[in-house]
Structures
1.
Amino acid sequence: MATKAYAALLRGVNVSGHKKVPMAELRALLTGLGHGDVRTYLQTGNAVFTSTSDDEQALAAQLEQAVEERFGFGVDVLVRGHAYLRAVADACPFPAASLEGRQLHVTYFSEPVTASRVASLDPAAYLPEEFRFGDRALYLYTPDGLGRSRLAEALTRSAPADGVTATTRNWNTVVKLVELTRARPA
């Protein structure tokens, strides 16, 4: 059976000392679940692995359960394959090549979202910051970085409590995850 490369995006781990998940333990956890070629990227809950499964939701649910059992707290997880990650990077509506990685972010969603999700926001009030929607993704341009972004804060506040999981990565991480999930010669 053929294997596929995936990225697991854990939401809200290792931020400000909360929900600590050491990356070595995350690698061991994924390996213990039967996944291959397990690697992590940075300390913020990015892992790549291979699996014979084609079911991203089942893989995410499996990892969520394993993290809760191992670390004692719940963590939302999104699992995405290389083709999707590549398509999101390729569809970026902003000039990524001319921006610093800290100025451009992608928020990945567990399911499709539309502009109605943030209908109460007036985008013009946040210029020069901007956002655009993609395939289960939101692209966010923040010239002064995410930490100083009024728009990012407003987007977070205006998000409905609808059970949709969302997790954000800067552009450097977006590009690195595409690279790490690319098929490698055997």
2.
Amino acid sequence: MSLPAYSQYADYLISSPSPYIKQVLINRPSRLNAFTDRMWHDLGSLFAQLSHDSSVRAVILAGCGDNLSAGLDMHEASQGDILNGGTEKDESIDGARKAVRIMRYIEEFQACVSAVERCEKPVIVILHGLSYGLAIDIACCADMRLCTSSTSFSIKEVDIGIAADLGTLSRLPKIVGSLSWAKDVCLSARPFNATEALRVGFVGEVLGTKEEAMSRAVAVAEVLVRKGPVAVRGTKALLNHAREHGVAESLRLTAVWNAAALQTGDVGEAVAAWKGKRAPRFEKL
């Protein structure tokens, strides 16, 4: 059962396995955790809430059951408008106006997925079972990626006649550092396994089972939540900025950022804790 503050998200289970850590489970196992229209809207709202929740310092994302997600729910998509951008089949709408509507729809979808990346708190995703399509988009937005040895990955969009449009094509080549490999898996939609994902750097660690991966994620998160929340927020923001910008611009932003951030009381508390040989006690952000 989700925590009361997060009970409005019908397709997600939110719990707290340890202080300052929130665990989010995609909760549609009977449909392989495939995403409906409601689910991706709720994903954006959920991660915006987690971002601003002062009781959260790290987030773990996984799926209920055996799979992270099989991607888009093709049954729902075939019944509705999701594959044509939410536009009605109205022949009176000219091509340009229809294109504008579809673009708005895609950008809204992109913003909901990107909420995982915009979250101020570190996000650890566990890829397990089927991790296809939208699961890869979401995983690319996370800060750390773990997987199980039996995970099957695939960027499936070309198999349904579209180019992946929710972030994988923009983020994956930067994550793995190989445009050739990224083009291979994106153009072919071929499945790849945990060994290959680790080899190219898409995941940082492979665990034997989902349970082992969950335990490892909690252990990593417990390290993160003991750090100063101002420092963690700034480090994540500056690393994300540096990925998209040159060194000089990144250094300038770091100077501006720390001109404010170094005024935090966390520095004094960290020094006092070091001198007193105790764990620091940082205030909520």
3.
Amino acid sequence: MTRVSGVNHVTLSVTDLDRSVAFYRDRLGARLRCLWPRGAYFELEQLWLCLEAADHVSVRGDDSHIAFSVGAQDFDAAVDRLGDAPVWKENRSEGRSHYFRDPDGHKLELHVGGIADRLAHYRQRTPEGMRFFD
């Protein structure tokens, strides 16, 4: 059976390309790889991120968001680098997380740890109705 092997790339619509390029490059440390009048390509380790200019951006009102990995030793500096980026949620999960918005209101997160850490946490404190598949 053919199956999806992972995330290929993420594209976010932005209303001010220059402002967003500066945010992702300067505040998140994304490596700018390509820039054109209506878009930009970045690399964040294994993630290919595309910004695409748009006249309007619709922001979701739910908990949908993109989480970026950050090492435990770099977490505080990464949060500090975000400066006045608005916080949209307080951390209630295991591990260190910081929930913030980009200039167009996209919901983002810096998170320390991976799925193995999350599953280990819930195996020790399993909420009612949670099932594991190994």
